């Protein structure tokens, strides 16, 4: 996956989806945003609200939709 971190056409997606893998975290400290579904290019967080308290999905939702569900650090 790291090969896409600097590949033209993928940089923005990698900054949004793979900050840690690509080493972009320092640039985004303090920002809190929901990720975009890479298959559709759309943010699906509001449609997935029922997952935010589902035990099996809480960690995924904290990672993918922190802004929508109030998981952002203050």
From TrEMBL:
Chain ranges of the ShKT domain: 1-25
Protein name listed in UniProt: ShKT domain-containing protein
SMART domains the UniProt entry points to: ShKT
Species the sequence originates in: Angiostrongylus costaricensis (Nematode worm)
InterPro entries, alphabetized: ShKT_dom (IPR003582)
Origin: domain of life: Eukaryota
């Amino acid at each position: 996956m790291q090969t896409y971190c600097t590949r033209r056409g993928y940089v923005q997606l990698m900054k949004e989806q793979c900050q840690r893998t690509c080493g972009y975290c320092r640039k985004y400290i303090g920002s809190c945003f929901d990720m975009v579904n890479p298959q559709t290019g759309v943010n699906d967080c509001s449609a997935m609200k029922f997952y935010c308290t589902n035990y099996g999905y809480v960690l995924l939702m904290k990672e993918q939709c922190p802004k929508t569900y109030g998981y952002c650090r203050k």
